[in-house]
Specification:
The protein is α/β, with parallel strands linked by helices. The protein has helices at residues 11-17, 34-48, 61-76, and strands at residues 53-58, 85-87, 93-98, 112-116.
Length: 117
């Protein structure tokens, strides 16, 4: 069993992570934890909803690879595979894609998505 995360989050971060709005957004300054909060929300949806498919987009592939994927692996301890996916034992999956690939992702049923920067 995975060890629980032990982090202290600020109220605005908690408001985003657990928002019930259909399309929540977190807009804040550099170093305020936007990526961390997005990853926490992605993990929450992926771990608690079996068979949930989600995708994290970033504009530039190199930024996706060098920043977002690296942060995800650091924060969660989960490894992104060579196809840029993370699979969960409950059948959920998180895909990591750059925005230019959005046209290739047609006719899939997403449970959630995240666009970073």
């Amino acid at each position: 069993m995975a060890e629980p995360w032990r982090v202290k989050i600020k109220q605005f971060q908690k408001d985003f992570i657990f928002s019930l709005r259909r399309f929540p957004a977190l807009v804040s300054g550099w170093g305020s934890g936007k990526t961390f909060c997005g990853i926490m929300r992605a993990m929450f949806y992926s771990e608690h909803i079996p068979g949930n498919l989600g995708v994290i987009f970033r504009k530039e592939y190199t930024d996706l690879r060098d920043s977002t994927v690296r942060d995800f692996e650091h924060y969660t301890g989960k490894k992104v595979d060579s196809q840029r996916n993370v699979k969960f034992s409950n059948g959920s999956m998180i895909m990591f894609r750059h925005l230019e690939e959005m046209n290739n992702l047609q006719n899939i049923n997403l449970g959630w998505f995240m666009i970073e920067q």
